[in-house]
Fold these 2 entries.
Entry 1:
Amino acid sequence: MKATKFVPYSEVSFATIPGPATRFFRKFFLWQVWRFFRLNWKMMRIVVGGHS
Amino acid sequence: MSTVVVLGAGVSGHTAALTLRRKLGKQHKVVVVSPNSKYQWIPSNIWVGIGRMESKQVTFELAPVYKKIDVDFHQAKATALHPEGSADHEKPFVSVTYTGKEKQGEEAQIEYDFLVNATGPKLKFEATEGLDPSEGNCNSVCTFGHAEHSWKNLQDVFAKMEKGEKQTIVIGTGHSLATCQGAAFEYVLNIAFEVKNRGLEDQADLVWLTNEYEVGDFGMGGAYVKRNGYITSTTVFTESILAEYGIRWIKRAGVQKVEKNVIHYETLDGEYLTQEYDFTMLIPSFSGVGLNSYNKAGEDITSTIFASNGFMKVDADYTPRPYEEWTADDWPSEYQNPTYNNMYAAGIAFAPPHAISKPMKSKNGNVISPTPPRTGMPSGVIGKVVALNISDRVKANSETNNHKASMAKMGAGCVVSAGYGMTKGMAATMTVFPIVQDWKKYPRWGRDLSYTVGEAGLAGHWIKLLLHYLFLYKAKAKPFWWLIPE
């Protein structure tokens, strides 16, 4: 979204905003493939460990 | 031979029915009663609501699936429980009214040995004046039909913006006690994504309107995540995403009335304010579906079986206590009704002992805070555990529940879609363990931070898409469906 949306001292203006590197890695294929498997693994551990 | 009746064919009820059928031998009968002919994968309704999927992609007919696996399916609405039977019935039974075309309006009694109440919630639109989508003011994505209708209306809004008309889009919660913030949050992010794709940012004023004390509470008191070397709250995480997507937010707001183009809400400060809109989607409050119960003599025992909100009482500690005295042990782990041990409640149908978020009262004395979420992963896990306990009891002819799944010992993964596309899509993946904070076990953060994640990226979209296809495969009881976890 465009920077004109930000108004000084509004709540939105105090929020953290991702920089270029973070935005790049969010779409960088190889990194995201790794995150895909890593996050799935974390979720699987949670599901399996959540009931007996 | 035992008969197990499952009321409801949503995530929890359907999981319970499939598990029961797999675990119980053919000499036992599994019966499903659901007023709907179709199963719907509710998490993907968001994509129907923004035109990225059609409703046929998130639904399928239940009858052929149940026929394939030998489950008796009654397309009917349960109207009353008779856990002691009646003068005419030795065994307990449930009264139903058929809703399918063939038997529309016919009534019947279905006897059971075990009952799973997985009716899900009643969407209580009537609790907020003007909220019902049929009145034409507000939209909904709670069902695939609602989502289809929302997409139709949203296209009109996009068309106006393309002509240069500025439009205000308000998404959030439509009642001071509403839950399921996650679904509404997904919807506002997906709308923002589509607005950006169309280059309409200058024409759109996007607003997140919520009953949360802080954004990122999500009805579970928020969470803490490890992120870039810091331990940070989901409030920071959520505010960051909202700000990045150009969405302003109004928090601590209890919506009281929706009129044409104006939403009336009360804040925790006690102010009565309004927000104008051109398009709005607000989640209603939930209640139980309104089942009545009667004993053998025909006396009304509804208040014995159900809590005042209409959800079924289970093995939770319902003693009223202040927030500071709530503990993880208050939460149920077996989901068995304390009065009738052959009745269980799974998914949204069980009555939680209390909220997870701290209840907040406005200066006018009205509670404005989310009720606890019980959707998705926990619903599926609870449905499975209830089915395993019943099948063990049937096979061993015992009274013991061998399987447990407390929301205070169970984690949850929530994948919040924030844009559709295999290369440009995005989702925020959030995991927490446990869902209900256990301050005794985790005194600092309430949860185990090694399991708690908050991360945005393309991988999240792939996960959400994978879950869509995996869970529909599983729900259709295709080969080896049972290998797919809840």
Entry 2:
Amino acid sequence: MRDPELSIAGWLLIGQAKTLRERAFARLVQGLQHDSIEFSHAPQQVFQIHPVDASLEGLMYACSANTWARDVLSVVPITRPARSAVSDPELVPMLQDLADILAWEASEAFSADYYPGIPDVTIPDEHVETVMHALQREMDREGKSRQRQPVQFVSLPVERQRALAERRRWWFAKFSITPERWETGKWCLWQVSDEPMPEMGRTPAYA
Amino acid sequence: MPQRISTPVRTPVEAPTSDPSPKLWPAEICPQQKREMASPDVSP
């Protein structure tokens, strides 16, 4: 099934994508014409490109060779405003892989036998609490609408809460979003990690 | 005198939970809700 946020062109491309960066690129593509490309976050801007290789890699290379396309892909918004008074701001759909990974990490914090933190990441106690509260916010809302008891992040051992917050920061950084860049409200496709999408135990509902 | 019959008593392996509904896990929610749960309004 196609993710409704994914264009048909993006859907075809994501089938070829192997890395986090390639998948993010595929999610950014709004349309492909004869010799140009459009991106979801830059509506009504058309970029002329000249790919020499009929592949996703070739298409990305052609975009990086076009100064304007390269620049537009360097400043992609991180958030989309809340859709209603009862919802919260959300990641842009082009960061769906990050959202899927973080939801999986949050489940793993409860169920994994071993759930270590990230040694190089240091997060103050207050920020760990803020992150747990933010994660709980959406789970509570969804639990209410589904009439099911959501997991409680405060019930996790403190070390697991900290590990989850550290891993959250680590994954955001894989998508180029460090705390410093987060302040700018933008992420950069070219700095998204070139590593493969992690195995998450089961196939996501959407591509 | 009637023969005494002992009835075996089955001990439950686990105590019944007070909440029979299954827990809702983060990985189960829909893609849009996962984007909200990522809480982009909170710094990494």
